[in-house]
C-alpha cells in the first residue's frame, strides 16, 4: 500500500516528508525512501523495513533541502530491498520519481529503453517511467512536457510525483486511472503533495484532488492543473473539515461511497507484494502449504457469512477452474450444525472482513476439531480468525467502515484468485506459460475497475428512475450468479428494497411468475460462454413487460435494443469478471439508497461485525 509525500517551500523537506510517511504507516509497507534536492543535486536515501530504519540512514547521512519526495513501498515487481525501494533516479541522476501503480507494459518498455542505452539499477516497473522521462527530457528539456509524454507511453493506473534537479523549484504530479489518489495541499508559501490526506493534514486543510488523467505542476507559490493532454483545468479547493470522521471521509459523502471508489487502489494493494509479474509467479508462502499437502487435498470447504459468503461462491468457480479441487461453500451458521464431512485431507478456508464474525469462527473451530487444514482470508490484521488459522491471506484493503461491505468483497475475490493460482501451481496443474498469462490478467484488473469507476454510466439518473420500486430481481449465470446475489444483497441492505438474486436459468421454474411492468430486473449479460443464454432471459423478461437494466460489455450495441437501460463495463477475463461486474451493482444500490434518504453507512438493524450468535445488531 504505497504512500506518497512531497514538499516544496521554505522549510527543511526531510522531516516533513518522514512525518507524512509515518502518518501513512497504517497502510503497510516493506521499504521506504526519500529524495531531496541538496545544493542543486538529487540525494536519495532508502532502506527496507520500518521507517525507523530510514530514519537511521538519514541520521548517519543527513540530507538538507527545501524540496523533496518520499515513498513507502509494498513490493510488486522485485523483492523488497534498498535497490528496489523508491525513489528511482534516471541514468544521470537528474530526474527522480515515486510511483503508485503497476506499469502493465513494463517488460516491453524496459527492453526498448535498455536497447537505447538506459541502465536499470532495480527490478521495478517504476524505473521504466523515470528513464522514459529522461529520454523525452533529452528531446524537449521541459520536465512537465517530458512527464506528459512518458505517461502517455505507460499502460495501467498510476499516481506519480517527479522531481528534477534541472528545474529544482517544482514537483510534477499526475494521476492516471484509479490506482491511487493524488492530493495537492496548499500552505502559506509552501505546498504539499500526497497519496492520502492524513499525510499532510497537520500542515493544511486546503486540498485539491486530482482526477483521472490530470497533472499538477507544484511550486511553493501554488499549483497549475492541466489534463494529460495539456489543457488547463480549474480545480476546486476543498477545505477538509476539522472533525475526524468528516476528515476521514474526505471528498465523499459516505464511507461506503469512498470505499466503492477506493477499489481500484485497494485491489492494487491486495495484489502488491504477492505477484512477481516478470517471473510470472505468485508468492503466498505465508500459508505454509507444501506441494505434497496440496496434491493430497481431496476437497475444500469455504465458510463465511453475508457478503463474504457470496465472495466464497465466486471463489468456488475460480478454485475449481485453476486448482481442480472440488469446493463446497457453506454459511458459517450452517456448517457447524450439520456434521460436515471433513478430515485431514480437507482444506477449509474461512473468509471474513472483520475476522470476528462468530458464526464463521464457530465453523472454523468445527473444521479444526475434525483435523482440517485451516486457512483464512481476512482484512483485519491480528483478528480472531487470523489468529486461529494455520495460514492467513490478508485482504490488504484498508479499514472498511461502511456496514455494507464493498472493497472487502473485491479484495477477497482477488485473494481467492491468488490462492487458486498458488494451489494450481503446487498441484502441478499450471505451467509457466499459463501462469504468466493468468498473472498478466491480474495486472490489468485495477485499471479495468478504475475504468468502471471513472466512466459516464449515469447511476444518479438510473436511481432517480427506480428508487420508488419495492422489488428488484437480479439475474446472472455461472461465475456471475453470485454477483447477482451480492448485487441484490447490497440493494436490500442499504435501501430496504426487497431484492432477490437468481441463477438466470432458474427463471422459468418460478420467478418468471413475478414479472410484470412493475418488476425491474438487473441482468448481468457481459460477454462470456453463457452470454447468449442471458440475452434470451432478457427477451423473456421483456416479453412479459418487465423492466431490464442490463450489465453488458462495451461494444455490445445489440443489447441496447433489448434492454431498457445498459450499463457498460470493459471486457474482462472471465475468471476476474465478478470483480469488475460487481462495481456497477454497488453503485446502483448506493445511489438508490441515497435517493431514498437512507442511512447508507449504518443501515437499520445491521452491524459491521456480528460477534454474537442468533442476534442482530443492538438497536
Ligand atoms: C455482517 C455485515 C455484512 C458482512 C457479514 C460478514 O452481517 O453487516 O456486511 O458481510 O457480517 O462479515 P465478515 O466480517 O465476517 O466478512
Record the SSE blueprint:
Blueprint: E1 3-8, H1 13-22, E2 31-38, E3 41-48, H2 51-60, E4 67-73, E5 88-89, E6 95-101, H3 106-115, H4 126-140, H5 143-153, E7 158-164, E8 171-176, E9 183-186, E10 191-194, E11 206-209, E12 214-219, E13 222-227, E14 238-239, H6 244-249, H7 255-261, H8 263-271, E15 275-276, E16 281-282, H9 291-296, E17 299-304, H10 306-323, E18 327-331, H11 332-335, E19 346-352, H12 358-369, E20 373-378, H13 384-388, E21 391-394, H14 407-426, H15 432-454, H16 459-466, E22 471-476, H17 481-495, E23 498-503, E24 520-524, H18 531-543, E25 547-553, E26 565-569, H19 577-595
Parallel strand pairs: 17-18, 17-19, 19-20, 20-21, 22-23, 22-24, 24-25, 25-26
Antiparallel strand pairs: 1-4, 1-10, 2-3, 2-4, 5-6, 6-7, 7-8, 8-12, 9-10, 9-11, 11-14, 12-13, 15-16
The chain binds 6-O-phosphono-alpha-D-glucopyranose.
Task: Quickly describe the structure.
The protein is α/β, with parallel strands linked by helices and 619 residues long. Helix 8 runs antiparallel to helix 15 (432-454).
Structure description:
An 8-stranded antiparallel sheet has the order 3-2-4-1-10-9-11-14, covered by helices on one side. The two termini are 36 Å apart. It has 619 residues and is an alpha/beta fold. The longest helix is centred in the C-terminal third of the chain and has 23 residues, at 432-454. Residues 305-308, 352-354, 357, 360, 403-405, 606-610 line the site of 6-O-phosphono-alpha-D-glucopyranose.
